[in-house]
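Cross-check.
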Amino acid sequence: MYDLAYSVGNGSMSGIGLKTSVDIGALVKDRRKALSLTQAELAEQVGVKRLWIGELERGNDAASLGLILKTFMALNISLSADAEIAVDDEGPLIVGADLDALIEDFTHRGGHDD
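Predicted model, tokenized:
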């Protein structure tokens, strides 16, 4: 089971689960409104059309991970992922995703989902 936590600004990590695309969309919408941004303004910062922001906020699960991460960066949302690791005689069965490394790699590539 993976746990995904997030923080906004310089705040501490929240344990609120982000388990579905609808959860991610709600987070984006809430944060955008908290920053008094319109969908069009956020879309301009991310480099997408306003329609894409609307689809993300409605929980469209076909959104590109790279663009979601870029949206999170524009909204100053940080993520952290942890996994429970099951171990048998041959070692780990499930290895946690290193989301921090993924975001760092994405940032160093200039925010492009190549």
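The helical segments are 21-34, 39-46, 50-57, 65-74, 99-108. Residues 21-34 form the longest helix (14 residues). Passed to J.P. for a second look.
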